[in-house]
UniProtKB/TrEMBL annotation, chains A, B:
Protein family (similarity comment): Belongs to the Fur family.
Gene3D superfamilies attached to this UniProt entry: 3.30.1490.190, Winged helix-like DNA-binding domain superfamily/Winged helix DNA-binding domain
Entry annotated with the keyword Iron: yes
Sequence positions that bind Zn(2+): 98, 101, 135, 138
Keywords: DNA-binding, Iron, Metal-binding, Repressor, Transcription, Transcription regulation, Zinc
Naturally occurring in which organism (per UniProt): Pseudothauera lacus
Gene Ontology terms: biological process: negative regulation of DNA-templated transcription; regulation of secondary metabolite biosynthetic process
PANTHER family per the UniProt record, alphabetical: HYDROGEN PEROXIDE SENSITIVE REPRESSOR (PTHR33202:SF22), ZINC UPTAKE REGULATION PROTEIN (PTHR33202)
Cofactor entry: Mn(2+); Fe(2+); Zn(2+)
Name this polypeptide is given: Transcriptional repressor
Signal peptide: none
Length: 141, 141
DNA sequence: TTGCTGATGCAACATTGTAGCATTTGTGCG
DNA sequence: CGCACAAATGCTACAATGTTGCATCAGCAA
């Protein structure tokens, strides 16, 4: 049975973008990550794989992935964004930020449950639920 | 009937801090604001009142207020924090960020409703629900 | 009033991200 | 394949938002 998921190259081309070294590499990093990654984290992962890019190129690559709806940006620990693939989780879930170790964990089970309680006139584009506390691993020590 | 809310001076002293010009002024600005304010917004409001402080002093004052539990920090528009008094709303409510005008509105009616669905081992300190979209005023135009 | 300690101001630095522009590189086409 | 052209990259400079170190100032208790 063949893998039905599109390869990085196919995914990029399907969105009308050029298949560049940067996009392929970033997609592969995000695809094999199990938590949302910061720009910094992505750069480190790339370097371990022997690939280096200019800081700006990375920012632009991530921006493009978000514009295309391939990745999402979620508020991570202080002031830096974290990125993850959309198809990885279906992109409507909360995130848990551990105040001790700083890691961000996806919480598939916790739903915002807004119940359409917005005041009249307001329109919602996206909800972002971030939980702050201590993760299981940190609580053990 | 006397005002039962503590004055800025009393509030500061009750927390064991020195009653300084900066703390009193910032508390008054936050106390009369009807939306969360950014560091920038606070500085502007202070200047209109004829009070100016060093940028760093403002940061440290706000940091102190948050540490003392007097104010809270909520994620505002891109990369800057917004501040509001805790007692103003009881501090467990969502915030709406308008992607057009950038304003942040308190949503008393929208509750996170987490339902204690956290995975075992995780402990929650604070939940932060930020809604992104267009506010009523922007939707009218 | 005085002295101690916390708070402030100033300068320098850090982090995270953007903008402009020359150069390189993917891609479609002959 | 080899070209031409637009898209993507790299570099430099800049912007926004905070933070750190350190000398000075000022609240407050005695
Ligand atoms: Mn996630
Ligand atoms: Mn609020
Ligand atoms: Zn942790
Ligand atoms: Zn608006």
């Amino acid at each position: 049975m063949p893998d039905t998921r599109p390869s990085a190259r196919e995914l990029i081309a399907a969105h009308g973008g050029r298949v560049t070294r940067a996009r392929v590499a970033v997609l592969e990093v995000l695809g094999s990550a199990h938590t949302p990654l910061s720009h910094e984290g992505i750069a480190s992962a790339l370097e371990e794989g022997g690939e280096t890019f200019d800081r700006v190129t990375l920012y632009r690559t991530l921006e493009w992935l978000v514009e295309q709806g391939i990745a999402t940006r979620i508020a991570g620990s202080e002031r830096a964004w974290n990125f993850e693939l959309v198809d990885r989780h279906g992109h409507h879930h909360a995130h848990f930020h551990c105040q001790r170790c700083g890691r961000v964990t996806c919480m598939e089970e916790v739903a915002p449950a807004l119940a359409g309680a917005l005041p009249p006139g307001f329109s919602l584009a996206q909800a972002e639920l971030v939980l702050h506390g201590a993760c299981a691993e940190c609580n053990r020590s």
